[in-house]
Amino acid sequence: AYAVGQLLTGPLIDRLGTKRGFNLAVVLWSIAGILHVFGRGLWSFFSLRIFLGVSEAANFPAALKGIAEWFPRAERSMAVGILTVGPGLGSVLAPPLLGALIYYLGWQAAFIVPGVLGFAWVLWWRRMYHLPAVHPLLSRRELDLIVAGQEESSAESVPGRLTDFFRYREIWGLMLSRFVSDGAFYFFVFWLPAYLASERGFNIIEIGMFAWIPFLAADLGSLAGGWAGQKLIRRGMSLDRARKWVIWVGALMVPLALPAATTDSPGLAIALIAGAMFAIQVKASSLFSLPADLFPARDVATVWGLYGAVGSFGGMAFNAMVGWTIDHYSYFPVFFAVAVMHIVSAVLINIFVPRIEMLKTVRG
Q1: Half-sphere exposure of 155 (CA within 13 A, CB side)
Q2: Is the four-CA dihedral 151, 79, 155, 358 of positive or negative sign?
Q3: Phi and psi for 265 in degrees, rounded to 5?
Q4: What percent of the chain shows pLDDT beyond 70?
Q5: DSSP letters of 201-259?
Q6: Are the CB atoms for 71 and 142 separated by under 8 Å?
Q7: Tens of pLDDT along 42-57?
Q8: Cβ pair 314, 180 in contact under 8 A
Q9: Number of neighbours of residue 249 by Cβ within 10 angstroms
C-alpha cells in the first residue's frame, strides 16, 4: 500500500502544490490512524492499514518537493539529512512513548493521540509554509540566494505526467539503485528484533534496551552525510562529484555489517549493525537529493513517488527472500547480500547518471 501510494500521491502533490498536498495527506493519515480504534478483526484492520499506507506515502514526495522549492542545490543534502533524521528518531522515541500510552490508557490511545497530533501539525503547517516568493518574513537577500542556487524556478509550471519520465535513463538509474538497496534498510528495520532474539538470545527487555542504538546511528549518518555533501560543494567540488563521493563513501562502509553475522559478541554485533545503518544513511543523504538535482521543483514529487515506490517494492522482494533464506540456511547470506547491495546501487548511479545536472524535461 505504501509503495502504490507513492505512485499515486507524487503526481497529486505536484498538481496541488506542497502546502495543499501535505495538508490533505496528513489529514487523511491522521483520520486513518484514529479509525484503527474501530477495527474488530483481520479484514477491518487490513483495510485500515492499507488506508494508512496509501495516505502516509505522501510524506517523502511532499517533503522533497518542499526542499527543492526552498533550498539552493548546495544545501539540499544537508536539508535531506535533517529530514531523514525523522524516521530514525521516531523509531527511537515511539516504542517507549506508545508503550506508556498503551499501559496507562489502553491500545486505542496509541492510535488516537498520534492522530490528534497530526491535526495539530496541519494547523501549524498551514500558517508556517509558503513558497519563497510569497513568504511574508523572507528577506530579499535570502530569496535571491535561494533563486540563485536553483537552475530553474518552476513551481508555477505544469508538472509532467508519470509516463513522461520513463524516457530518461537517469530515472531508470534512480529506480534500479533504490530497488537493489532499499531492502538492506528494511531488513534492519523489520528483522533486527527477531535476529537479536533468535541469534543473540535477547529477551524482550534486552531488545527494548538495545534495538534503538542502530536507529540512533542512522540519524547521525543522515546528518553526517548531509553535512559532508554541503561542505564539499562549498569548498569548490562540483555537485556531481560531491553527490557521488558521498554515495560511494556510504556504500563502501555498509559491509561493516558482514562480521555481525559471525562474531561471538552481541555488543560487537550491535555496534557493527549500527555502523552499517550509519553508512546507509550517509549514502541516502545524497541519493535522496538526486530527484531535486535532476528535475525541476514542479516534478520532484512525481519523480520521488516513482523512485520511492520501486524502492519499496525492492524492499518487499528482498524481505520475502530473507525469511526463506533464514529458514533454509542462516543469517550469514542475508548479511552478505546487505554488504554488497549498496555498492551495486552506487555502480548503477554511475552508469545511468553520468552527470548530475538539471535535465531538460520534455512533455508529451
Answers
A1: 18
A2: positive
A3: -95, 115
A4: 96
A5: ---HHHHHHHTTHHHHHHHHHHHHHHHHHHHHHHTT--HHHHHHHHHHHHHHHGGGGGG
A6: no
A7: 999 999 999 999 999 9
A8: yes
A9: 17
Here the contacts of 264-268 (C-beta below 8 Å, separation 24 or greater) are 266/196, 266/200, 266/201, 266/202
CA distance 66 to 330: 43
Question: What does the alpha-carbon distance between residue 162 and residue 152 come to, in Å, rounded to a whole number?
Answer: 20
pLDDT tens column, 260-315? 988 999 999 999 999 999 999 999 999 999 999 999 888 999 999 999 999 999 99
85 C-beta neighbours (distance < 10 Å), count: 18
Question: Residue 87's closest CA among 176, 239, 184, 216?
Answer: 216
How far apart CA 68 and CA 228 sit, in angstroms, is 19
Q: What long-range pairs does 87-92 form, CB within 8 A, spacing at least 24?
A: 88/215, 88/216, 88/218, 88/219, 88/222, 88/281, 89/215, 89/219, 91/189, 91/212, 91/215, 92/212, 92/215, 92/216, 92/219
Rounded to the nearest 10 degrees, how much is the dihedral formed by the CA atoms of 2, 359, 174, 233? -100
Assess contact for 244 and 173: CB atoms under 8 A. Answer: no
CB atoms within 10 A of CB 336: 14
